[in-house]
Amino acid sequence: MVACGLKILSVVLCVCCLSGGTLRAADAGYAYGFAKTEITPEVPLRLSGYGNRDTVYENVDAPLYVRAIAIRSPEKKVCALVSLDSIGFAGTFTDRIAKTVKEKYGLDRDQLVICSTHSHTAPHPVEGLSNIFSTPLTEAQRNASQKYWTQVEARIVKTVGTAIEDLKPGTMALVTGEVGFAQNRRVLKNGKWTGFGVNPEGPVDHSLPVLKVTDGNGRLRGLVFNYACHCTTFGSDYNCLNGDWAGYAARYIEEQQGEIVAVCTIGCGADQNPIRGKKDVAKDLAIGHGRAIAVEVARLLKQETQPITAPLGTAYGKADLPFEPPTKQELETALDHQRPQVRQHAANMLKHFEKEGKLPTSYPAPVQVWKFGRQFTMVFLGGEVVVDYALRLKRELKSDAVWATAYANDVFGYVASERMRDEGGYEVDFSMIYYNQPGRWAKGTEDILIKRIHELVQQAE
User: Fold this and answer.
1) For residue 174, how far is the Cα from the chain centroid?
2) Is residue 376 included in any domain, yes or no?
3) CA separation for the pair 194, 2 (Å, rounded)
4) What does the alpha-carbon distance between residue 127 and residue 435 come to, in Å, rounded to a whole number?
5) Which listed residue, of 31, 170, 213, 273, carries a Cα 20 to 30 Å from 126's Cα?
6) 120 marked as binding residue
7) Domain presence at residue 115
């Protein structure tokens, strides 16, 4: 009887040890959580993206959302990636959110990234793109916008918290497909920019990387997808609230897969436009682009995948991008320009010149890296970054897969490549006026940014 009792006790102890080992193994793995909150305005607001808009939007085509994924590593580090249906936002907006998230949930700055889908049919921000309109916001419009963005700020914080509360053990894997509606929009003649259109010889990035998250039973819980293209299916004559192709893509993916959250980030597509048409077909085109992504995502989700299991390293920093500012004489001449934005920009810069004795010499562009060992590297860049950067990072970074996102943490202006300097044109020369930046970037800016990215990738290892 004693021997029998000892055998039973031994078996029980073995089962307990095995059970404890299994629990510890589960606890040691990755966990994921998702959340989604509507941010459709309660009253009509001015839409952003085009300078000639001067009235609030006419109606709502589709609701807007903030979506988030939270990731907890085996080392208990929690990170959150947020995507906002918006044209963008200033770094001051992101900094406040990061401070609140740190206070509430303990996430350090390198553990939170906030991205924009850059929709040109979304509300104008009260911080950022401060010189875009030829007809400035009225006081009533500004007050309504301020109230809206204060609400959005709070809802982003809440969404991050909900995603963290939703953390459950699971598996994340990367699959990559392709969608072809993005087109290089920089038309050149004899090597010089001549306007917007379709440049079939220009560089593009049609890749569609998708991070899919499944639970222990293999059930899909949510995903993140990335595509390098402007959300400009709608032109300036379309004055209805809409998330453009990015909003439709997320909606259709969620409808097809059922009870999941599909988080959209935008790649380095600042010089890429979707296939566009006249006002009466724009909505159909945006829906078609969204469905094209949803169909490709559905195909990718059926593929066999390898889970991402490498340790998660994170890093956050700034790259000081130097300006090539105009002279005081050039600014004074611009005061007589026919376009009101150019005149206002010149006045703003001259005022700064009088106060400080000089114009700003550089801008602290945010750079963020999430690195899963050698398996996967995610780079998040502020500003409207052109496709050359993503293509270069995919060549240079020593990683099995590279995911480059723009419009992250601070949308402060276009970030053109060195190749574009001699070509000139909108992204290089004109766009900085709308962002109220002194002038175009100085020679060598691309290498400065790329070097800083490499430094932060090493820091995240």
Assistant:
1) 18
2) yes
3) 94
4) 10
5) 273
6) no
7) yes
